[in-house]
Amino acid sequence: METMVNNIAIEKAKTSKIHDVDFDNLSFGSVYTDHMLVCDYKNGEWEAPKIVPYQPITLDPSAKIFHYGQSIFEGMKAYKDEDGKVFLFRPLENFKRLNKSAERLAIPQLPESHFMDGLHALIQLESDWIPTNAGSSLYIRPFIFASGTGFHASPANEYKFIIACAPSGSYFSGKVKVLIEETYSRAANGGVGYAKAGGNYAGQFYPTKLAADKGYQQVIWTDDNAHEYIEEAGAMNVFVRINDTLMTAPTNDRILDGITRKSILDIAKDEGIKTEVRKISVHELVEAAKNGSLKEMFGAGTAAVVSPISGFGFHGEDYTLPELTNSYASVLKKRITDIQYNRAEDKFGWRYPVE
Ligand code: PLP
Ligand code: COI
User: Fold this and answer.
1) Can you give the pTM of this predicted structure?
2) DSSP string covering 258-319, please?
3) Whose CA is nearest to atom 10 of ligand 1?
């Protein structure tokens, strides 16, 4: 039976899978909730989004997603506070970035109401699935791909926008050891690095596997020109603390403009931490590690939140970072998660209640 909630048609699942899920032992993004939002682009327009039971989708083998990789996605989280109230974090930023990615991949712009009203209705419906254990949340994956068919190498004429949700624990189990990449590149000038395009991740898997074989969990990507400046990690923006200054690379067309990154910069300034957004060379990083002025490095992203880096490898050498009490990473992680989980005042206006 179908009902309408805030203009979104909802077809409810006949049974729920929620009792099969071990909420005390959640990994990241590997079990999915009972429903998903689906919205088709056909005949030159986005149709009304609807919520249906979570299910496989059928595609023609000539769907352009398979051949030309026209696919983009977002990553967001829903949080539940101690009173059971549900919040999203800066969801409009994800919507805007999805359309920025869409533009670059020649995918039609999605109307704001399709995204926001659909997301709201879905999260309301799935609110029982939002975990409350420390560090857990409901990971939300909005994505758009070319479902239209044809071997002609040109944009498809049909697309699907879907939002799926996965109750999730931490992305990393502990500190992250990273390898500074000297051979491969994630993105190039004028390319799609700033978009959240599926292919950006596919291209990272092989170099990341080579790094994993050497004992590193993530690659730190460097500029494609000379591998001279650090840019970002596989699924995170990167912060570096030299003495008491916190730095991160400026965004450009090779770097994803992370919502966590810009929130961390604002919180750090509010904490009175000196921040610099500037190019950071590998040479400077190595020198700072050698002379002891490199105090911390951490990654920042929706999935990874704030993930401290234990050390980095470069040119066959490993550089280990000190263990600090009251690290910037721990202070900033507490501040951002306190806002996300409604444990502290939200002076920036970032929390979005789902009521
Ligand atoms: N950089 C890359 C390549 C990412 O995949 C992500 C994850 O979304 C980020 C940075 C962090 O972005 P955000 O904080 O908006 O999740
Ligand atoms: C996120 O942080 O939401 C991401 O998209 C990272 C993802 C590649 C796991």
Assistant:
1) 0.97
2) -HHHHHHHHHHHHTT-EEEES--BHHHHHHHHHHT-EEEEEEEETTTEEEEEEEEEETTEEE
3) 236
